[in-house]
């Protein structure tokens, strides 16, 4: 085999591994599995991880980031992610995943026994991964809401 083909196969394997790590992140959220989610983030505080949830300030440090996910999981009865527009870029031991999170979520109903109304939301996300001896680990997650169009037309003539 040629060296170029070997490099191409290695790059394809890296991209597949990053996509797998990205999928595992969202699946852990859907299951409400904080232990699995914790294992997907870079360990230790030597490389400070960061996270921006839609509408939240920047969270830095592994402890603060994981506490935010514990809080979200504790207050979300149901969540499902449908990822679209997924793109992976890599340079060295760093990978960047961009995607649109099509989120369906809901909390408990007011009567306490059923699931409350489901709400849909669009979020564009950037997930940064670092290669470690244990595989690709999240370094940063940033989610930003996509503003929905109101459907109102702005055809009004300016007043003079």
UniProtKB/TrEMBL annotation:
Record protein name field:
Nuclear transport factor 2 family protein
- Report the residue ranges that make up the SnoaL-like domain in this protein: 18-146
Q: Which SUPFAM superfamilies match?
A: NTF2-like (SSF54427)
Q: Which domain of life is it from?
A: Bacteria
Supply the InterPro entries for this chain: NTF2-like_dom_sf, SnoaL-like
Source species: Streptomyces argenteolus
